[in-house]
Design a protein that fits this description.
This protein has eleven helices and 13 strands. By secondary structure, the protein is α/β, with parallel strands linked by helices. It is globular. Bound molecules: pyridoxal-5'-phosphate.
Length: 383
């Protein structure tokens, strides 16, 4: 899928582009017709905005298997959701488990708490068979392990953690499971109830095809119910009280929500449902296989992970990832280079020296797009 001036976009893991027409229509319709402030007043326009938001809560709750719409807490993005989920439940003295492929959105909040001396943390290996990963996790559990926070799928490889099995283990051991669904929401089926996920943190703007400006925590349990708040302020309810309300989701949603982005997210979830997660995933894997096979045959091109999916990391010997990405950019192709905010994942994959070039697919790519990308990579590699 190209822009009007022919730019080919392969950075969907950062944010999906283009957005479906239905999403653009939903955002503009909301701005035109439901422009009040949700939960702030009882006039028609405020109520319309509140209805947009409630509709998205219902859509998201049903999509991710939450029992009620109130189990969906809106945030600004995944990073905000992960920070809120972690900091709401963590207590001094707790031990936290994270995986070896985490994004900085997990590593940095955990490490910030650890540097205050509040918590300690250990890293389990997120690579290997399910049995190896689970036994690695078991070996790291301590008597004070209270939280696991980990990516379902990392952002530079396609290997998914066996979250359902990890969920059962955490439930048995009384560990709160927070899942970073930034790269799996909209790509793989997720059911917070069936998978025993306490809090699923997801973006609206990636695989759910909404616009930038909102994310969510989808709660699969009561873990966050009376937790600590990250920010406090107006919620539109219990205004005479100085403290934040106890109820979800208001307890964690201080301030005005981004109603147009939330209206777009409803349409994005409907788009993913109409396309079907399985069929979206199959298409991404087909495009991935096409590119992987062709790049494997090119001398000087190095690949890191052989699991098909929506992202493909590569390097060209003797040229820095930034240079490759700049050369592709000059040829009208957008990819991301560097460390992708994921130093742990690069260490695990063996690409920590320079990072890599990441291609990431979306719902609108065609095989022709992939052939054009492949040809340009070849032109750069053979120079
Ligand atoms: N976690 C992972 C695995 C990601 O790939 C990203 C972003 O790419 C994030 C978290 C942060 O997401 P957001 O930009 O929505 O905060």
């Amino acid at each position: 899928m190209k822009t009007a001036d022919g730019i080919l976009y392969f950075d969907n893991a950062a944010t999906t582009y283009p957005k479906p027409e239905s999403v653009i229509r939903a955002v503009t319709y909301c701005m035109r017709e439901s422009g009040g402030n949700p939960g702030r007043g009882s006039h028609t326009m405020a109520l319309r905005a509140a209805e947009e938001i409630y509709a998205c809560r219902e859509e998201a709750a049903s999509f991710f298997g939450a029992s009620e719409a109130e189990q969906v807490i809106f945030t600004m993005n995944t990073t905000h959701a992960l920070n809120l989920a972690l900091k709401s439940v963590i207590r001094p003295g707790d031990h936290v488990l994270i995986g070896s492929m985490e994004h900085n959105a997990v590593l940095r909040p955990v490490s910030a708490l650890a540097s205050l001396g509040t918590v300690s943390y250990s890293v389990f290996s997120a690579r290997g068979t399910d049995a190896q990963i689970l036994s690695g996790i078991r070996a790291k559990i301590r008597s004070n392990t209270r939280v696991m926070i980990t990516a379902h799928v990392p952002n530079i490889a396609n290997t998914a953690l066996p979250i359902d099995k990890i969920g059962s283990l955490c439930r048995q051991r009384g560990i709160t499971l927070i899942v970073d669904g930034a790269q799996s929401a909209g790509h793989l089926p997720i059911d917070v109830g069936r998978m025993n996920i306490d809090m699923l943190c997801v973006p609206g703007h990636k695989g759910l095809y909404g616009v930038q400006g909102c994310g969510m925590i989808v709660c699969g349990s009561e873990a966050i119910t009376h937790g600590r708040t990250l920010i406090e302020g107006g919620s539109g309810v219990h205004s005479l009280e100085a403290g934040m309300p106890d109820e979800l989701p208001e307890r964690y949603e201080a301030g005005t929500l981004p109603t147009p982005a939330i209206a777009g997210l409803s349409a994005g979830i409907r788009f993913v449902k109409q396309q079907g997660i399985a069929s979206l995933h199959r298409r991404e894997c087909d495009l991935w296989r096409r590119l992987y096979t062709d790049l494997s045959a090119m001398p000087h091109v190095r690949l890191y992970d052989s699991t098909p999916g929506s992202v493909l990391l590569f390097n060209i010997d003797g040229i820095s990832p930034a240079e490759v990405s700049e050369k592709l950019n000059q040829r009208g192709i957008c990819v991301r280079s560097g460390y992708h905010c994921a130093p742990m994942a690069h260490k695990t994959l063996g690409s920590i020296d320079n990072g890599g070039v990441r291609v990431s697919f979306g719902a609108f790519h065609t095989e022709r797009d992939v052939c054009r990308l492949r040809d340009e990579i070849w032109n750069i590699a053979r120079q």
